[in-house]
Specification:
Length: about 270
């Protein structure tokens, strides 16, 4: 469902959502970037894809933020407890949606997951739950950070904002550079499958490893002397690791890039 052709079909819907937000901002004369643009647009898009009800959007946003806070390396015991409490509220809510969808299948992504079979086996409710939480939370939370922090960095680098604003052909490259520069997901946890030698240190098989994606994205060995500079015309910007790599490459990468390109690009040109 996240193929390039499928994403292109979403372009019009994303543009409509962004234009509606920016029209309202124009009428008011101001915008609260996260609450008005960066959160509601990705949240509505993933809700559309999964055909999720949106009447509890504020609760979903609160649950999502509490749960993602617990993933931070600096999470406190209190934040972990808050995450457990949020999950206890989230799971029954999503379970009721899954059970209802089993009886009322549609052409949405959740219905596709319910009906999908592999080797004759269908996903259990627990498996569907895990997938739904991943798609629903990861499907908007990180893109909120990309749009919000991306525009913040462009305000700090007006010369780069001007370059991007003046050349719509730069949208794809500029978004990749924003992904490299701000790294919405700073770390990713992996488990070593074999002993690995890393700069003279052996990491044993079976160890949890916290990979610093943001550090890789600013490594001068890869990016040269301009690693700490924002350059929306950077050659090879798409070689960042913000979506991970290999078998665990983010399945929603094309969606995130499309949403950010439309949201940031339209914002820059609408409000120079």
């Amino acid at each position: 469902s996240f193929t390039p052709s499928a994403m292109e079909k979403l372009r019009g819907r994303i543009q409509q959502l962004v234009d509606t937000v920016l029209d309202a901002a124009h009428d008011r004369g101001s915008i609260e970037l996260i609450d008005d643009l960066a959160f509601p647009v990705p949240f509505q898009v993933i809700s559309d894809l999964l055909a999720m009800p949106t009447e509890r959007a504020e609760e979903m946003r609160e649950w999502s933020q509490i749960i993602t806070n617990s993933l931070e390396p600096t999470a406190t015991d209190e934040e972990l407890a808050q995450s457990d409490a949020a999950i206890e509220q989230l799971v029954p809510y999503l379970t009721s949606i899954i059970e209802d969808r089993r009886k009322n299948l549609g052409d949405d992504m959740l219905s596709s997951l319910i009906t999908a079979e592999e080797a004759g086996d269908k996903m259990t409710t627990d498996e569907l739950m895990a997938f739904l939480v991943l798609l629903y939370i990861a499907g908007h939370e990180t893109t909120v950070n990309l749009i919000g922090t991306g525009i913040y960095e462009l305000l700090r680098h007006p010369e780069q904002a001007a370059i991007w604003r003046g050349d719509p052909e730069l949208d794809a490259t500029a978004v990749d550079e924003m992904l490299r520069f701000v790294s919405p997901v700073q770390f990713s946890r992996r488990i070593t499958l074999d002993d690995i030698d890393f700069q003279g240190t052996t990491i044993p098989k079976g160890m949890f490893v916290l990979a610093g994606l943001a550090s890789s994205n600013h490594d001068p060995k890869k990016w040269g002397h301009t690693a700490e500079e924002l350059d929306v015309r950077r050659d090879g910007a798409g070689q960042h690791l913000s979506f991970g790599s290999g078998a665990h490459y983010c399945l929603g990468a094309s969606l995130a890039k499309l949403e950010a390109a439309i949201a940031i690009g339209t914002f820059l040109r609408r409000f120079p």
